[in-house]
Amino acid sequence: MKLKRYKRAQKILSFYRYNYSYQPPYRVLLDGTFCMAALQNKISLSEQMPKYFCEEVTMCTTRCVLEELVKLGSKLYGAFVICKQFEVERCSHEPSLPASECLLHIASRMKTCSKFFIATQDRALTDSLRKIPGVPILFIKYNGILIDKPSSATNEECMKTRTDVDKIIEMKKQLLENVEPVKRKKRKGPKGPNPLSIKKKKKVVSSGMSVTSTKTASGKRRRKKKAVVCTPSSAQ
C-alpha cells in the first residue's frame, strides 16, 4: 500500500515539475485543519513529509493561520503548537483574514510569486483551490499524507498550452517548407596538369653498334653493322 502511494505521489510530482516548474526543495503551506489531522493521526510532519516527497521539503504557515488558531481557543491548541514551529510566510494581510481566504489569496498569485503545495483538510477551501490551475493540494487520509490528483482546471490549462505549442511548431514547419533552398556551388576538384605543357619523353640513342651476319650466294657470310637505338626503358 505504501509503495503504491509513493509511486502515485512521484507521478503527480513529475506532472507539476514538467508543467508548472515545481522544483525541490518543495514549499508546503499548512493550515490549522491539516496540523490538527496530523496530530489526531499521530503523524510527525517533519519526519513524514520529506519521506513522502522523497525530496527536501520546507514547511511554513501564515500569520493569518496562527491568529485564527489562537482565536479558536484550547480545542485547537495542539494544532497551534505544531503550526508555530514552522516558518511564517509573509502574507501582508492587515488586519488578518480567515485562514482559508489567506491561503486562497496566496494560491491565486503563485504564477508570479513563490510556488507552494497547499496542505489543508478544509473541503470548501479545497474546492476553491481546484478551480485555480496549477495548485497542488495535500491532505491526510488513511493515516497518511496524500497529494490530490491534478484538477480539471489544471488539466485543461495544460492541454491548451500543449495545443498552442503544437500550433507554433506547425507554423514554423510551414515557413521552413516555403523557404527556397539555397543553391550551393559545386566545388571543382583539383585540376590536373595541362597536357600541352607536359614535355614528351625523349628517345635515348645509344652510340653502340650491333653486328649481324647474312649468307651470300657463294656461301660466304657477310657482316653488317647496325646502330642500336635505346628507348628510356631499355636504357635502364
From TrEMBL:
Localization (cell): Nucleus, Nucleolus
Gene3D superfamilies: 5'-nuclease
Keyword entries, A-Z: Nucleus, Ribosome biogenesis, rRNA processing
Main location: nucleus
Ranges for region Disordered: 181-236
Record-annotated UTP23 sensor motif region domain positions: 184-203
Family annotation (SUPFAM superfamilies): PIN domain-like
Biased composition, class Basic residues, residue ranges: 218-227
Compositionally biased intervals (Low complexity): 205-216
GO-annotated biological processes: rRNA processing
Protein family per UniProt: Belongs to the UTP23/FCF1 family. UTP23 subfamily.
Function: Involved in rRNA-processing and ribosome biogenesis.
This protein's name: rRNA-processing protein UTP23 homolog
Organism: Gnathostoma spinigerum
